[in-house]
Amino acid sequence: MRWPLAARGVACLPWLLAAAAQAAVTLSPPRWDVDPPLKLHEGSRRVFELRNSGSQPVEVGVAQAQPPLSAKLAQSTVPPGQTAQLTVDIAPPTQAGPFAAHVTIKAAGQPTLTLPVQGRTIEPANPLPAAVKAGESYRPRPGDQPITVQVLYNSNCAPCVEWLQAVIDPLSRHFGEWVRFERHDIRQAEGQRWLERLRAAYHTDAFATTWLFVGAHALPGPAIDTSIYPLLLEELARPTVVPPLSAPSAGRQLGLGAALAVGLVDGLNPCAFATVVFLIALLTRLGADKRALLAAGGAYIGAVFVTYTLLGVGLLHALAWVGAARVLRCGVALFALWFAGLQLRDVLRLRRGAPTRELSAHLPLRLQQTVHSLLRWSTRLDRGRWLLAVATAGSGVLVTLVEMVCTSAVYLPVLALLPTAGVRSRAMALLLTYNVGFVLPLAAVVGLTLLGVGSGRVAALARRHLAAAKLALALLLVGLAALLVLR
């Protein structure tokens, strides 16, 4: 007997109610009314709870958000009686006015959840009085004393630069010689060191992209705007005591002698050293005379030096752009320690008599074959001496780029220890000195060949001292890593 449709619906109702009771997913709180209003270029974040009050686990889909929102769920399955975190970010707005958006979440067997978000964006209040905005000069009061203010900012942060232009520049013009503003960019190594010293002296661990230190006061971020002008007037009248700072440090950087020595050890890197030995052996086997050897060897070494220097200048600019942040230095230090570990493992293998093909820290076989092919192509003697030199120089450029797979383990830590506040003359002097040390072993190989020492003897000497060279390289990398971490 077939039941009427209504009767069948009534019969299924208990099952539907039971299924609904097994899982009930809700958001807490159910909406976000952003208060206080956001300032331009100032984002916000809030964490919500996605609660499963049923008796069965619920699979949750990806949270979809309308601009300027972005949302992320901490997990895709919510167990019964438990919660999952939903993090919602509001991107820094670029226009003032009201905004409204929502986040939607689909849960299996549940209606779609919607989290409405609304708020308002306002222009940041300018904390300066009318006299400062009008460009009037400060009239000192009896008893006023000149003061110094330390201003720290992130030059890669657009609102920070706008704040400098809208607040600090007018104040500097207004107070003139009575208030000296010293600016430090915390993206640069020197600015980072200043911030670390000041935060330690003022015993503050707040996070901000702009800072102001005056007298005994440390103001991070938004706290500056609300109190800067009255605070400066108060400090002019009754200066407070600046806490003692730790001794300034130029940072643990390389000197010229150390740069030459480090470059020399890096030049003995089997990756770089073996290539020039192969080059000389190839030229000798092809019957090149001494002039051809000198032209080809000199062109190759010159190309390596120029290419390595240009790569260093580019990397220095990149480090200056991203800033000498501690996390970056620690990352480079970990890379150096990892490569040092490979060198030490190779030393142990060599001590046990393992063949060189079983070593870890060397160019992969395919790259070695590429390098040898380039050198064979460049040393075709039917080109003539000058064309031979040009071809060998071109190979030197390409081989240097390939060998960066190996040599970057030393080069990157060295560059991270150089001053990066712009590519300054000291940084360039250290870089050039390092690269002179790097090519000295290559020049020595060419010189020995011209004096009649066969490349086979040079290669045998290199193989005999390979373990010592790798050990020296490992110790150098550990030392560079320590300098980067302690800097």
CA(first)-CA(last) distance: 87 Å
State the total count of DSSP E strands: 15
- The percent range for strand residues is 15-25%
Which regions contain 5 or more consecutive residues with pLDDT less than 50? 5-22
Write down the secondary-structure element order: HEEEEEEEEEEEHEHEHEEHHHHHHHHHH
| Overall helicity | 40-55%
Q: Count helical runs.
A: 14
User: Helix/strand/pairing class, anyone?
Assistant: alpha+beta
C-alpha Rg (nearest Å) = 33 Å
Shape: extended
* Overall pLDDT level: 77
Largest sheet: 5 strands, mixed
Count of folded domains: 3
Q: Give the quaternary arrangement of the chains.
A: single chain
Brief overview:
This protein has 3 domains: 103 residues, Immunoglobulin-like (Sandwich), CATH 2.60.40.10; 108 residues, Glutaredoxin (3-Layer(aba) Sandwich), CATH 3.40.30; 231 residues, no CATH class. Helix content is 53%, strand content 16%.
Task: Give an overview in words.
The protein folds into three domains: 20-122, Immunoglobulins (Immunoglobulin-like, Sandwich); 130-237, Glutaredoxin; 256-486, no CATH class. It has 487 residues and is an alpha+beta fold. The relative contact order is 0.10. The longest helix is centred in the middle third of the chain and has 33 residues, at 290-322. Strands 2, 3, 6, 10 and 11 form a five-stranded mixed beta sheet that branches. Helices cover 53% and strands 16% of the residues. The chain starts with a helix and ends with a helix.
